[in-house]
Amino acid sequence: MLNWIVIGVGDITIRRVIPAIEAEPRSALYGIVTRDPSKAAQYGVRTWGSLEQALKDPAVDAVYVATPVFLHAPQTIQSLRAGKHVICEKPMAMNEPEARSMVQAAEQSGRLLGVAYYRRCYPKVQRARQLLEQGAIGKPVVAELTNHMWFDGSGSRSWLVDPAKAGGGPLFDIASHRIDVLNFWFGKPLRVTAQLSNVVHHYPVEDNATVMIEYEGGVRGIVDVRWHSKIIRDECRIRGTDGEIEMSPLNGPDLLSPGGQENLPAHPNLHYPMIENFVDAVEGKNELQASGSSSYWTDWVTERAVRAARLT
Length: 312
What we know:
The protein is α/β, with parallel strands linked by helices. The chain folds into two domains: 2-118, 3-Layer(aba) Sandwich (Rossmann fold), CATH 3.40.50; 122-268 and 290-310, Dihydrodipicolinate Reductase, domain 2. The protein has nine helices and 14 strands. The protein is globular.
């Protein structure tokens, strides 16, 4: 049995992370780290006011870091050095050097580091990778992913527009997921160009970002994310020399390829397959779908996207 502690009791923790841990048969919610014990009371588990206190408990096996981005690297590294396995929420870190330090800490500790890029576990994302490997659309040449929504910076997630806490706007929050999916399909990114700006909302982070990534073999990935659209979009398609794979909306079940249409729904709790895969990896039964080493390359892309935008 893997004893988990969770740092932070926010929306994603309550709706997905804790239910996933409680549902996974080889896992147990052992405790919660929070500055407000009342938030953890409903779970009837141990509660600590600081991570340092929690990590002293030898019964703790794994840590789920569900805090704002600026805490990801220090809390992940602290947990790894204490001999615990870790899953860290996305994006992995505030910048590439932080992400690199997290990977190094995992290597030095001999513990597993996973990152919550749960879309790698989507059946349709896995199926698309299989179709690409089979040559179903010939030579892939371009993949396009868009995610548009409205976010004015208010409400419980207002910290997302504070660059000191979140690192960036939609580039960090929603583009990171889609960049990671591109890396899952096409491998290590080679070059990045980008444009970031504020068109509607003038908070301290960008309200839109367009990123173009070059991969080996000439594949180009384009990710466009926006927090100023009252029309919600979640588009995803891969075009090749002999056809295309259409997966819009990315979060829906449908996949259309030259072979026909397939219905491949994700698990009702999107975090559950990720937790299950992590426990498999701890037990040596499988490799991590989204490891620190693979997730590092998403931070590599976002870092270069920010640099490229500053130069324009």
